[in-house]
Amino acid sequence: MEVTNTTEKSxxxxxxxxxxxxxxxxxxGKNDGRLQTRFPPEPNGYLHIGHAKAICMDFGIxxxxxxxxxxxxxxxxxxxxxxxxVEAIKEDIEWLGFHWGNxxxxxxxxxxxxxxxxxxxxxxxxxxxxxxxxxxxxQKGTPTEPGxxxxxxxxxxxxxxxxxxxxxxxxxxxxAMVLRAKIDMANPNMHFRxxxxxxxxxxxxHRTGTKWKAYPMYDFAHxxxxxxxxxxxxxxxxxxxxxxxxxxxxxxxxxEGKDLEDHRPHQYEFNRLNLTYTVMSKRKLLxxxxxxxxxxxxxxxxxxxxxxxxxxxxxxxxxxxxDMIGYTKFDALNDYAMLEAAAREDLNARxxxxxxxxxxxxxxxxxxxxxxxxEMEAINNPENEADGMHTITFSRELWMERDDFMEEAPKxxxxxxxxxxxxxxxxxIVKCTGCKKDENGTITEIYCxxxxxxKSGMAGANRKVKGTLHWVSANHCQKAEVRLYDxxxxxxxxxxxxxxxxxxxxxxxxxxxxxxxxxxxxxxxPAQTYLxxxxxxxxxxDTHSTPDHLVYNRTVGLKDTWSNQxxxx
Length: 569
Ligand code: ATP
Ligand code: MG
What we know:
25% helix, seven-stranded mixed sheet, binds adenosine-5'-triphosphate, Glutamyl-tRNA Synthetase, domain 3
């Protein structure tokens, strides 16, 4: 798959292909003018950015056209499902800014589905197969060669009914029997070759407990659930295209000769979201969590919705990204850099500007009186005047970035250099006078003199000084831990790599800076505030940050240094 940087450029006004279908259907008066969608997660993991794409479609289109989108938990496999996931999924959808009509569970339909299966058995359209899954798979044939019929295919209805009950009794081992729809072992669509529709799972279900032992397969639950609920447009991802005829087949069976005309759900498919340098498979994400290769589902490096939230993404940034990539009928691999670009664009408008020094070294303003302080005004957000100003304090002892000083600097280094002038943001112009080093040659202090007439806004401030540096006053700041994040994987498309995904993890995906300083104002802001550390990037307080141990996560740097780096390599 090629990485795409281009977007479908929905040109804002033009409709995506699903919107076109919905508009046409509404215009034609199909479904009595009703629009009903659903978002159908399986509660077996946390939502990721791919799900966000599906959510923006399912909820977004209902919202746009005055329909309703319900949340349906597709909980037909108790092996990996859990209430923890149900709750997390609800939280994430709400955070993204969407509202469901009803909450449904596929497990609410277990009795209806069972009755439907019994009916199919009675009509000679389903049978119990006692072969192993390997035998069944071996008989499937290939798309060009017909399959082989199971020796159990023509057993009597009564026996099928008895065995189906037995499947649900708890007396039969998992895998010993399955119920298969009797359709067509030669059908060119492999999904029609007597698909398995029920299997035994001896595990307690998070909602129905031990009531059921036989559970319906996806293809025997999804379309039927859509039908029971009155879904009109069942939107999913492209891998379900070959399932669509079976989806329609079971609805035809279910309607029992009723003439539904247009009053039936239809399935439509769009391209999945795949992102570079990460994985989207729940199985792999779960492994990262359980093997403690990351710090939980909400580790800020994870592509999960809660991970992005903890990292400092806003819901608007996520939605902006989804909007940028659009919906098509072709699979693609989207560039992670686009997600970051969306975040920068959104956070630029939203973030409160503060000062923080991540790699600190002392800066002494030698001609500034000891013990004196001065309060200055700083603009909170140049993009939004309504965000106002806040006060910063200037004093004799400051923290500045170690990287902002060079004893002997190249010409273009417009920062702190002995003999040269530089502006301290929102404060004075200072001239560097030297530095002090310890026995190892490490710089321990930098010295400068300030020009009292050069305070921002004063007449003396007018002379041209090329560099402006950020700083915090040593007695008016808080110590903080800052966490910098990089790509979780070292290769562009880990899913297409032959190596185990664990081997592809980026060992440098997390850098912890234990001793940073943030200005007091930043530390006092509510934890959910989106911040810009000036000249550095966008940051947000970590969920585990406390007043005694402040922790900030870097959401994204100010510039896309990463793709420049990779180009240079
Ligand atoms: P599983 O591997 O457990 O089947 P899944 O990713 O398919 O995982 P579901 O909970 O079944 O997860 O997905 C819910 C909905 O989200 C489905 O409609 C699915 O098509 C959609 N979805 C899942 N992954 C993506 C993705 N990467 N891009 C877009 N939509 C997705
Ligand atoms: Mg799925």
